[in-house]
């Protein structure tokens, strides 16, 4: 099967509705028969919608975790994966879409050929207990990852997943010792990364995160299981999350501000910095800050995140010549 070419990196017009990336394995509805074969426990969570489709109850955390286990086994060769109760359980199609977009971004600096293999190094800022980006990125492209997090418990759970799947050589985990820092304290001197990825906490306080979570659960309780749909139609807020995964002082905007600030300090060590941006109203301020910081290229890439439109923003401080020379190791 031929690999589809990289998707153009551009911002769609106001009326455009992004679809899943053409390389995303999760187009359309899931084959639940195949998923149940990989993880039989999933069968206990299946429901039938009024249209006669098979789905799960996305308001049930156990059902979502069982679905993820089945997907990871079927499509990504991840045999062992589990999370503590209440931990952020990521919607895999959206997480995979982000990585495919990053692969296209890297291809633009590599003669339009998507870089694969261990020579490609990616830093996952806020790797979380699920370790989802390193798992997917290594399975799809063979990339090597460093995952950072401020929470020792999350790192312990992620480390158990990495070890159980024999991925210790491909995935390294590091603790970020300072809550106010993003890259400082994690990157080693002269260490280089082809890209960074991040799913920032988007609430500004624990109360705000709790309130949104409670409202969402009330909405789900009023309509399940009749309107349960495929995972690509489920909101990202259906997937739980501990407080540190969902909020930080100042919310998403402040987190992104700190990320840009820290990226200036390590600008020569990273080819492309990237981050998901959940709220479109934060884009104008982010563009302005990146311009003032001296970023020479900034991209906004629209993505399909269920019924919500999402995007990631990428920036680099390296001009076109330095980006072209990156793979050779030249600075």
UniProtKB/TrEMBL annotation:
Coiled coil: none annotated. Pfam families: Methyltransf_10. Residues 212-221 have a biased composition (Basic residues). It is found in: Cytoplasm. InterPro entries: METTL16/RlmF, rRNA_lsu_MeTfrase_F, SAM-dependent_MTases_sf. The keyword Transferase applies. Keywords: Cytoplasm, Methyltransferase, rRNA processing, S-adenosyl-L-methionine, Transferase. GO terms for biological process: rRNA base methylation. Belongs to the methyltransferase superfamily. METTL16/RlmF family. Specifically methylates the adenine in position 1618 of 23S rRNA. This is Ribosomal RNA large subunit methyltransferase F. It comes from Luteimonas deserti. The gene is rlmF.
């Amino acid at each position: 099967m031929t690999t589809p070419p990289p998707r153009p990196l551009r911002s769609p017009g106001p009326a455009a509705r992004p679809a899943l990336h053409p390389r995303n394995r999760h187009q359309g509805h899931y084959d639940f028969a195949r998923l149940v074969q990989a993880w039989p426990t999933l069968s206990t969570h299946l429901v039938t919608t009024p249209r006669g489709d098979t789905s799960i109850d996305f308001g049930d955390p156990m059902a979502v975790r069982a679905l993820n286990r089945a997907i990871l086994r079927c499509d990504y060769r991840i045999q062992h994966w589990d999370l503590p109760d209440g931990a952020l359980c990521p919607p895999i199609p959206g997480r995979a879409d982000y990585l495919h977009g990053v692969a296209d971004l890297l291809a633009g600096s590599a003669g339009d050929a998507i870089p694969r293999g261990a020579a490609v190094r990616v830093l996952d800022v806020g790797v979380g207990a699920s370790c989802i980006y390193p798992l997917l990125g290594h399975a799809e492209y063979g990339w090597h990852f460093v995952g950072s997090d401020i929470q020792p418990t999350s790192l312990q759970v992620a480390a158990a997943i990495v070890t159980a799947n024999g991925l210790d050589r491909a995935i390294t985990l590091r603790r970020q010792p300072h809550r106010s820092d993003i890259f400082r304290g994690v990157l080693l001197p002269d260490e280089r990364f082809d890209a960074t990825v991040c799913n920032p906490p988007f609430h500004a306080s624990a109360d705000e995160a709790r309130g949104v979570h409670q409202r969402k659960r009330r909405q789900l309780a009023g309509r399940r299981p009749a309107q349960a749909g495929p995972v690509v139609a489920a909101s990202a807020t259906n997937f739980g999350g501990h407080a540190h995964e969902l909020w930080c002082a100042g919310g998403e905007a402040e987190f992104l501000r700190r990320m840009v600030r820290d990226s200036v300090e390590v600008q020569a060590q990273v080819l492309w910095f990237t981050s998901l941006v959940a709220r479109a109203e934060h884009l104008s301020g982010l563009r302005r800050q990146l311009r003032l910081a001296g970023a020479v290229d900034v991209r906004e890439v629209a993505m399909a995140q269920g019924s919500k439109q999402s995007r990631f923003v990428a920036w680099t401080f390296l001009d076109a010549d330095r980006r072209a020379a990156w793979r050779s190791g030249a600075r």
